[in-house]
Structure formats: C-alpha cells, structure tokens
Known about the structure:
This protein has helices at residues 5-29, 35-47, 51-59, and strands spanning 31-32, 63-64. By secondary structure, it is mainly alpha-helical. A two-stranded antiparallel sheet has the order 1-2.
Amino acid sequence: MAVAPEDLLRLLLLLTVIGMATLALLYLRQRRMPPLDALAWVLLAVLLPILGPIVVIAMRPGRPASRGFPRPARVVPGQHSRKTAKHPF
C-alpha cells in the first residue's frame, strides 16, 4: 500500500502542529497566572497553529511555579561571586 507524497506531508504537518501545541500546553502548566490569562494563552497556542506555540513559549507568561528546586544565586554587577578568590595571586 503506497502512500502519496502529498498525504505523507499533510500527516507530518499535522503531527508537527499537534506536537508544538502539546509542548506549549505543557509549558503553560508550569506557569502561575490568573485563569483568564491562562485561557487566553491556551487559546493562542491552539488556535494559531504554527506561530501560536512559539509565541507562548517565547513570551513566558505568568510566573514560574516553584516546585522546590533551588534557584541559582544572582550576582549583581560590580559584586563578586563567593567563589571568586579575594587575592588573585
């Protein structure tokens, strides 16, 4: 049973759109935001087929949900890290 090349391309495009939407939805599950904001981002990811998931992930809506992972310490410009030796020699 041979599959026409155009049917194969349509199938691959459909799988790509579904995969990208799934990635965007999984990403949105990790963000904290009000329900209406979350609904708007989900609709954007689902209704705008290729560009929607990319925009959702790139815009990073809401705040990250803390899951108990330690955050790396931020170093303020001009401030030395604790790992830096006081005497370079």
